[in-house]
Amino acid sequence: MKAFHSRSHFWGRVTLLSMIMTTLLAPFYLSFVVGAHPGWDVIIAGLIGYASFIGIMWH
User: Fold this and answer.
1) 16/37 Cα distance (integer angstroms)
2) CA end-to-end span of the chain
3) What does each of the 59 residues of the chain score in pLDDT, given as a tens digit?
4) Count of beta carbons in the 10 Å neighbourhood of residue 30
5) Rg of the chain over CA atoms, in angstroms?
């Protein structure tokens, strides 16, 4: 059973990290390669709005 948990944790970490990198690939490509970066003030304002909404819903 310990071998199963070890292998499943390994593959879980691999798939989680690959999905995080895949999720971030498109925004980074659009921002820095294509040049469609909206500006840091817009990104920070969106992050603050999203975090405040999630913070209220989480509480």
Assistant:
1) 26
2) 37
3) 888 888 999 999 999 999 999 999 999 999 999 999 999 999 999 999 999 999 888 87
4) 13
5) 18
Number of domains in the chain: 1
Rounded to whole angstroms, what are the CA distances from 18 to 2, 7, 25, 54? Answer: 24, 17, 10, 25
State the amino acid at position 43 in one-letter form: I
DSSP string, 22-50: HHHHHHHIIIIIS-----HHHHHHHHHHH
Written as six digits, the tokens of 8 are 């499943």
Instruction: Please state whether the predicted TM-score (pTM) of the whole model is above 0.90.
Output: no
Q: What is the residue type of 48?
A: I
The structure tokens 């895949």 sit at: 22
Show the domain range for 44: 2-58
